[in-house]
Amino acid sequence: MNITSKIVALSSAVAFALQIALALLMLRYFSPEEVGTFSVISQIGFFWTTLALAQSPLGLLANHGSSVFDDARQAWVSSLQRFVWLLPVAALAVWWSDLSFVSALLWALLLSVCQLTWMLAQSMRLRMLDSWSQVAVRVLPPLVALLVASGAIQLEWNGPSLLLAGLLGYAVGAAWFLPALSRTQQIAGLVTSWREPQVDSLARSLHDPLHQTIPTTQGDDRSSKLRMAHTLVDAMLATLIVLVWQRLYGAQETGWMSAPLRVMGFLPAIVHMAWAQVFLTRPRLARTNPLWIGLIGFIGVATLGASCALALQLSWLGEQWQGVWPYLLPLLIWQGTACMAAAFSHRPFQTKNARKYSLLCMGIAALQSVSLILPVLIDKEMSPVNHILFFSFTAAAGLAFLSRWQRNLISR
Q1: Which tens digits make up the pLDDT trace of 392-404?
Q2: How far is 374 from 390, CA to CA, in rounded Å?
Q3: Ramachandran angles phi, psi of 128, nearest 5°
Q4: What is the helix (H) or strand (E) element at residue 404, kind and residue range?
Q5: pTM here?
Q6: Which distant-in-sequence residues (6+ apart) come within 8 Å of 241 by Cβ?
Q7: How far from 246 is each of 26, 36, 103, 217, 379, CA to CA, in Å?
Q8: Fewer CB within 10 A of the terminal residue: the chain, N end or C end?
Q9: To the nearest 10°, the Cα dihedral for 285, 290, 294, 295?
């Protein structure tokens, strides 16, 4: 792995550790009902964010224009336009979740705007040759969230501590996008009029910071409609699982399912950010076999599952969290397989097979969605344990097929 990949991997690992600490804090000091409500609202916000972005962060990495800031600003404006159009969809999801409508929608809106900007900031900073910003943009948001949640516990505040912690964390991450929103050309013009060489250099870097170029054989060949459709399917699946659990089994069962899923789900995200995304921006430098990266991610998920099981066995989490037990193995298999798929996710863009990749992902996600809502469709009761087993093994089978297909792609 090259130095950039190592820096991103290290910062992502630190951010992951902080999020694990926050997750353990949630399990230790908050009830399953509180965690369940937070999971539903934050997932609706994530659904809103993901759909509004329409994979813009990935496009920002795969397709390079002449200016990093111009590319980032264009992606942000387009995403905000979609964000406004999607307001009725988000409102419908909040209404269906059976939570307090106005309060939940407001929290989802604030979380989504800040998270949207933060995700674009990560891609923008990854294209810039500034190693320290890679660390700060990833580490500071979860650190702030952890500190806010810890402070709320110490002060014994009875308000929406988890939602506030998440919002402030995303806001700190979004602040790293501000250079792209400033009027850089005007700043550069004013500063260069001083005719100081050092200031000239600063002005040029503000307008167009040093960044990497990519080979012509790499790129995203999908239409905007296909990217939007792919994003819609992925976002609906990620949101549907918490909404179905909330609707069918209640807030407590949702908390038992979503807490370990939140912890294990960090690993596929880290593999994608610290490996696949870096590979797209530095394609000539990485030489590590993606299979090893996927296996490391799978082992990491298994370690997290074993750690959670040990905490339950030692009663560290308390009796109210014993309902997590049946979810550990199914979620482990699902998220472990997701790490394998994430490790090879750069291949379709390297070989200009992104269109086939999206169509395949959409088909697999549709199959997973059917397995998730099957009890509702056939109007037949299914226990939460059997439901998560059926869904997780279906998801793992689809992701294993995707991993094999990506692995067989050969770069031109």
Answers
A1: 999 999 999 999 9
A2: 10
A3: -90, 145
A4: helix 384-407
A5: 0.68
A6: 257, 261, 372, 391
A7: 18, 8, 17, 45, 17
A8: C
A9: -110
